[in-house]
Automatic annotation (TrEMBL):
<protein>
    <submittedName>
        <fullName>Uncharacterized protein</fullName>
    </submittedName>
</protein>
Length: 219
């Protein structure tokens, strides 16, 4: 649909060679989210983003390499919901790829925390996740929301204990308030903030696709 971007798609196909060496589902999801973030940040509007993503899926399917198919499996797991069925069909059989590829997107939410840093700094919502069924690889989605719940920071945190220890130290220093948050309240708030076509700060885009996937798992 966007033939002028053929060289861009070819670059994504070559970049996919990095995926098998990552060796873990979370690393592969973070990598895939960063590629999608680059694509979305460069798109002039939502229609162009959807067209570019459809073209990328076609290019990866045409490449047919194990790395390209692994990229497609990651897209099918954590990519935009409207693109997941096409990516899954293009990826081929579910048993292809390294063993950890079967865990892509297979996570369950855990504790949710609300960090309030003052009326001028907004709120930070931290949502913990683990892979199922073994509960391994604890990680967190951390989203800082400013005025009108516009995201100013979106990150995936691998060291959750260190993050929470830092938050608790800040609370002891009276720099913020940390309290448990009802996932049923955090989910709609995060989805409304993340599923926007409005431009976001550049640093938000690398984690945006994975953040949307994780937020969709909340009530």
């Amino acid at each position: 649909m966007l033939p002028g971007l053929r060289e861009v798609y070819d670059a994504y196909v070559r970049a996919a060679d990095e995926l098998p060496a990552l060796g873990a589902a979370l690393r592969a999801e973070v990598w895939t989210s960063a590629q999608l973030g680059t694509l979305e940040a460069a798109a002039p509007d939502a229609a162009a983003r959807r067209a570019a993503l459809a073209d990328l899926i076609t290019a990866l399917r045409s490449a047919g390499t194990p790395a390209a198919r692994l990229f497609l499996r990651a897209l099918a797991a954590i990519g935009p919901a409207e693109a997941r069925p096409a990516a899954a069909r293009a990826a081929g059989g579910p048993d292809e790829g390294p063993p950890w590829a079967r865990r892509l997107g297979q996570v369950a939410p855990g504790q949710v925390w609300l960090v309030q840093e003052g009326p001028l700094d907004g709120d930070r919502i931290i949502c913990e996740f683990r892979y199922v069924p073994d509960g391994s690889d604890l990680h967190a989605l951390a989203v800082r929301l400013g005025h009108d719940d516009v995201p100013s920071e979106v990150v995936i945190v691998g060291d959750v204990p260190a993050l929470m220890n830092a938050a608790r130290r800040a609370m002891q220093a009276e720099l913020c308030v940390v309290q448990p948050c009802d996932p049923a309240a955090a989910g709609p708030r995060l989805r409304a903030a993340l599923n926007t076509d409005a431009p976001l700060p550049e640093d938000c885009y690398p984690a945006l696709a994975l953040a949307r996937h994780r937020a969709d798992l909340l009530p």
